[in-house]
Amino acid sequence: MPSDRFVAALNEQVANEFAAAQQYIAIAVAYEGQTLPRLAQFFYAQALEERNHALMMVRYLLDVDARVEIPGVDAPQLEFVDCVAPVALALEQERRVGEEIFNLMKVAREDGDYASEQFIQWFVKEQVEEVASMSSLHDVVSRAKDQPLLAEDYLAREGGGDGKADPTAPQVAGGSL
Q1: Looking at residues 106-116, what average pLDDT do you find?
Q2: Domain presence at residue 93
Q3: 20 to 30 Å CA-CA from 101: which of 83, 95, 112, 149?
Q4: 96 or 173, higher pLDDT
Q5: CA 59/CA 4 separation, integer angstroms
Q6: How far is CA 62 from CA 2, 10, 25, 29, 119, in A?
Q7: Vertex 171 angle, CA 165 and 174, to 5°
Q8: Is residue 94 domain-resident?
């Protein structure tokens, strides 16, 4: 059984992951409204990924018979000054989530909770990948600020991931939704 401190921190992270999903939907809608479909598609996929991260955490809490709190989230930012601002916000968000995940690892270690530490390890790896991916996209969109269709071309060429499920990922609550 994880410590009360870890359960509270993981429930807080569930809220953070759902909030990130909502923000990514808002970003996707903003890009879609500007007829930038590849950027929109990228962020719709990111939203689904963040939602699944939250549900992985819910599944873990259920599996260890811990309290699960499904939170409400604040409204996401909807307005952006240019095509770079949404990706800048996303990069900032990914960096913040990385710190939150590292804190979860710290709590698990301090509490001697080896099962929770092992569970969080996957998210540590994932956050390194997420920050790197978002940082690259931010670089591209920044260079293409005055011609956002160049960012669309980049995503068409490079894609937003291989689309394959990670077999090492924790299970999602509700199965493979």
Answers
A1: 96
A2: yes
A3: 83
A4: 96
A5: 17
A6: 11, 12, 27, 33, 13
A7: 105
A8: yes
As a whole number, the mean pLDDT across the chain is 93
For residue 60, what are the domain limits? 4-158
113 Cβ contact partners less than 8 Å away, ≥ 6 residues apart: 2, 3, 6, 107
For residue 101, the tally of other CB atoms under 10 A from its CB is 24
- In whole angstroms, what separates CA 73 from the centre of its chain? 15
Task: Output the six-digit token pair for 125.
Answer: 């790896």
Whether 64 has a pLDDT exceeding 70, the answer reads: yes
H runs (alpha helix) in 34-148 = 37-63, 85-110, 114-143
Rounded-to-integer distance, Cα 13 and Cα 19, Å = 10
Q: How far is residue 3's CA from residue 112's CA, in Å, rounded to a whole number? A: 9
The predicted pLDDT at position 160 comes to 62
CATH code: domain of residue 15 = 1.20.1260.10
- DSSP classification of residue 120: H
Burial label, 93 (beta-carbon count in 10 A; 0-12, 13-18, 19+): buried
Which of the four pLDDT bands, split at 50, 70 and 90, describes residue 112?
very high
Total tally of structural domains belonging to the chain: 1
- Please report whether residue 24 resides in a domain: yes
Q: Does residue 25 lie within any of the structural domains?
A: yes
